[in-house]
């Protein structure tokens, strides 16, 4: 399993990459491997507000539909439009091509609630 050390992780299997006052968000390698082949990704619009621990979209695989839960609160400033036509990027490249949204943080302290790569790996291996 690929768990980049520079990212933070949520219990709901989202990753967060800090980029100044913004964060880039996607789902983890572990999550995509559990879901199987992703066939559809539903994301919010630019300008939407998201709230930590609330759903902000969904991913549909051949097995199931899973809600995406916001790891932090803020305003969506960028959406990865490529996932609409290429949902398979989530399986092929969960950390590079398949980032989902960029959010301008409303509360930087929420990042403290996220796990390190080491803690996330512990959580997923205890399964």
Automatic annotation (TrEMBL):
One Pfam family here: GCV_H
Coiled coil: none
Keyword Iron-sulfur: no
Cofactor(s), names only, from the UniProt record: (R)-lipoate
Cofactor note (record): Binds 1 lipoyl cofactor covalently.
Keyword terms, alphabetized: Lipoyl
Domain (Lipoyl-binding) ranges: 22-104
N6-lipoyllysine PTM sites in chain numbering: 63
SUPFAM superfamilies recorded: Single hybrid motif
Record keyword Nucleotide-binding present: no
HAMAP family assigned to the protein according to its UniProt record, in alphabetical order: GcvH (MF_00272)
SUBUNIT field: The glycine cleavage system is composed of four proteins: P, T, L and H.
Biological function: The glycine cleavage system catalyzes the degradation of glycine. The H protein shuttles the methylamine group of glycine from the P protein to the T protein.
Family stated for the protein in its record: Belongs to the GcvH family.
Protein name as catalogued: Glycine cleavage system H protein
Gene that this sequence comes from: gcvH
């Amino acid at each position: 399993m690929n768990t980049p050390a520079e990212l933070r992780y949520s219990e709901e299997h989202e990753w967060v990459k800090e980029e100044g006052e913004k964060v880039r968000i996607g789902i983890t390698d572990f999550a995509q491997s559990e879901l199987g082949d992703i066939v559809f990704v539903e994301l919010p619009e630019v300008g939407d507000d998201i709230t930590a621990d609330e759903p902000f979209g969904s991913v549909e695989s051949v097995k199931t539909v899973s809600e995406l839960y916001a790891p932090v609160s803020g305003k969506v400033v960028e959406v990865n439009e490529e996932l609409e036509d290429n949902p398979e990027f989530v399986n092929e490249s969960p950390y590079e091509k398949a980032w989902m949204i960029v959010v301008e943080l409303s509360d930087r302290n929420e990042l403290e609630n996220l796990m390190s790569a080491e803690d996330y790996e512990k959580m997923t291996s205890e399964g």
